């Protein structure tokens, strides 16, 4: 490796392209952690230049290192270097210089042309890929080009149908941030009124003499992949999916097919990985608008969706419990033992990603989507590898009817255990062992020439019903009813679970005569006998015939959070009737609620709501519950 120390100005003044390989991750820097510290360094060096008679700060500032793999020049092409490490820093510096250039042009500064030369290769066709000094990874190229050519924040936001009030994609956010800081530096809000050209000169001079980087160029015997992995902990930590993408497309770049056709690796990326970097959501979440990079909580894990998907995909493929912290090493070990061609692997990964997306973002009313929504409420993501396997099997192996039966059995097993408040601590081991058995049954059925579908369906049911142990058993109707009638379904920390149970019952109560086939979303739990209701409005009932040794207060506390006392209302209706007397609450529910769950409150003879009423309603609703979640 050949290290050299260069100023930012010297780095970009050359006619050269710094190209980020397609397997590198997209832009991830943000204001708090990177943009503001970088601007502070630039501003401090610019002020030092302006205060110095020689235009040189007292000491220069080191911005870090960049590692480049210099490519051979073909014909008259511009010199090109692949960025092995430091692409986030190079991209951010180009965004800063572009913002300074656009501000200088708008201010009609004498320094504008100097800045143009730091952002474009002037001998190349304007707007062509080869004209840009830095060319980011595939996921960011369209947006980066838009920024570099827009001419200013107003034009840029308009082109991308954004406003300054929107949460901006990170590339645009970085450009706009630096533009604002430059404007404040050149034209401060106080009365000092410095010469704008002089202030712009100070910033340029900081790039010339105040800010430096170590540029390391690889030599012929250096391995770019090894060096990348060695340096991956620098700066913003790489995600496991970043390392996996790097490995996969590095393999593609040295594949004989790529050597014969240099667009081979790009073609694989466009067909199979592009979605992971470019599928966007309309409204960014914490500055992130790429669907697969949104942080998702599953149990104790909060990771980008792509990392969670690859983790569950690997568990499905290996049939083993894995640690998500070791996902990259697990992936390499798995791929090293597989002889599946790279293209086939990527095709499978893309296929399963569609299944996983419907599990974490279900939108339909099919059986799998309904189960997926309820599963998210249960927070039982350990079932995802099993579900990937089930839903990924072709119908020639597992019929749609049998898939529906398996999903119904799994949901019933989970819901009944939830209602009976049985432990979920063993779910990870249980679902992995169930997955292993299903795969073994599939393999044996194929080898013996027997039908796969009924064998797998029977194996799932057999495994779910095999144990009477508390950690694995499938509660029968008697145990389910006891849990339904006597266990608290409402927990303050997880009201969504009570909502899920009540909404499922409401949907089951609907008939073809009802206007709506599904229950509306965004409903809230209402305690019909209020948690804070007065004893005057809700008097304690008489003592039971058979003494139970409990006080009226304890009896009420035990029943108040059970399903029989819970219903669903809109937030506004809930707030208006919550702790009031039942004589006022019932008519309001009858007037405003269209849920089948609340149809009984149309009865004007129902004037009180006490413990016995809760028990009667609980038993009525249980009739629907045991049909929604049946047991063999």
Question: In a few lines, what is going on in this structure?
Answer:
The protein is α/β, with parallel strands linked by helices and 632 residues long. It is 53% helix and 10% strand. It contains 26 helices and 12 strands.
Give a written overview of the molecule.
This protein has 632 residues and is of the alpha/beta class. The protein has helices at residues 8-13, 31-51, 87-106, 112-116, 141-150, 153-159, 170-186, 196-210, 224-231, 240-253, 256-260, 264-278, 305-318, 327-336, 342-360, 367-378, 384-392, 400-419, 427-448, 452-465, 477-486, 495-509, 552-559, 571-577, 582-592, 611-628, and strands at residues 2-7, 16-19, 61-70, 79-85, 134-135, 211-217, 280-285, 288-290, 295-298, 301-304, 524-527, 566-569. A hairpin with an 8-residue loop joins β3 and β4 (79-85). The chain is globular and about 100 Å long. The model has no long low-confidence stretch (mean pLDDT 90).
């Amino acid at each position: 490796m050949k290290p050299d120390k260069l100023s930012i100005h010297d780095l970009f003044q050359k006619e050269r392209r710094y190209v980020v390989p397609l397997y590198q991750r997209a832009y991830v820097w943000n204001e708090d952690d990177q943009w503001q510290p970088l601007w502070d360094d630039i501003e401090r060096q610019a002020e030092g230049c302006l205060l110095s008679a020689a235009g040189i700060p007292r000491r220069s500032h080191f911005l870090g290192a960049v590692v480049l793999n210099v490519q051979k020049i073909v014909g008259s092409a511009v010199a090109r270097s692949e960025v092995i490490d430091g692409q986030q820093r190079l991209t951010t510096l180009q965004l800063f210089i572009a913002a300074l250039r656009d501000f200088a042009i708008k201010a009609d500064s004498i320094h504008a042309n100097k800045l143009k030369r730091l952002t474009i290769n002037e001998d190349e066709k304007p707007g062509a890929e080869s004209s840009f000094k830095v060319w980011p990874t595939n996921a960011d190229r369209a947006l980066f080009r838009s920024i570099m050519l827009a001419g200013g924040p107003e034009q840029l936001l308009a082109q991308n149908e954004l406003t300054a009030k929107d949460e901006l994609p990170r590339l645009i956010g970085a450009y706009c941030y630096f533009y604002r800081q430059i404007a404040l530096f050149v034209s401060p809000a106080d009365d000092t009124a410095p010469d704008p050209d002089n202030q712009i000169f100070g910033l340029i001079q900081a790039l010339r003499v105040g800010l430096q980087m170590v540029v390391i160029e690889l030599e012929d015997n250096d391995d770019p992949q090894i060096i990348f992995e060695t340096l991956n902990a620098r700066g913003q930590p790489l995600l496991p999916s970043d390392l996996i993408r790097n490995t996969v497309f590095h393999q593609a770049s040295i594949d004989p097919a790529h050597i014969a056709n240099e667009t081979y690796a790009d073609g694989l990326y466009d067909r199979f990985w592009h979605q992971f970097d470019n599928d966007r959501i309309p409204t960014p979440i914490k500055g992130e608008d790429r669907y697969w990079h949104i942080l998702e909580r599953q149990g104790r894990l909060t990771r980008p969706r792509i990392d969670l998907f690859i983790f569950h995909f690997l568990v499905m493929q290996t049939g083993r419990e894995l640690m998500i912290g070791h996902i990259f090493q697990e992936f390499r070990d798995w791929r090293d033992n597989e002889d599946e061609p790279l293209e086939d692997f990527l095709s499978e990964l893309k296929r399963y990603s569609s299944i996983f997306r419907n599990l974490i973002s279900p939108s339909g009313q099919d059986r799998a989507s309904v189960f997926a929504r309820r599963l998210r409420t249960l927070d039982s993501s350990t079932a995802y590898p099993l579900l990937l396997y089930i839903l990924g099997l072709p119908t020639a192996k597992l019929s749609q009817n049998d898939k529906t039966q398996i999903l119904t059995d799994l949901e019933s097993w989970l819901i009944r255990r939830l209602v009976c408040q049985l432990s979920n601590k063993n779910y990870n081991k249980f679902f992995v062992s169930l997955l292993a058995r299903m795969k073994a049954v599939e393999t044996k059925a194929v080898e013996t020439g027997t039908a796969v579908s009924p064998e797998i369906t029977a194996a799932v049911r057999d495994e779910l019903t095999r144990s009477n142990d508390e950690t694995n058993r499938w509660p029968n109707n008697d145990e389910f009813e006891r849990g339904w009638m006597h266990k608290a379904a409402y927990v303050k920390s997880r009201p969504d679970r009570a909502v899920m149970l009540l909404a499922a019952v409401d949907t089951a109560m609907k008939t073809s005569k009802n206007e709506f086939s599904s229950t509306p979303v965004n409903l809230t739990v209402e305690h019909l006998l209020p948690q804070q209701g007065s004893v005057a409005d809700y008097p304690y009932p008489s003592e039971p015939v058979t003494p139970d040794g409990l006080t009226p207060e304890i009896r009420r506390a035990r029943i108040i959070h059970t399903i029989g006392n819970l219903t669903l209302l809109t937030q506004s209706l809930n707030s208006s009737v919550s702790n009031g007397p039942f004589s006022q609450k019932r008519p309001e529910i009858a007037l405003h609620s269209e849920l089948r769950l609340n149809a009984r409150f149309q009865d004007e003879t129902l004037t009180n709501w006490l413990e016995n009423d809760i028990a009667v309603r609980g038993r009525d609703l249980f009739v629907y519950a045991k049909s929604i979640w049946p047991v063999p």
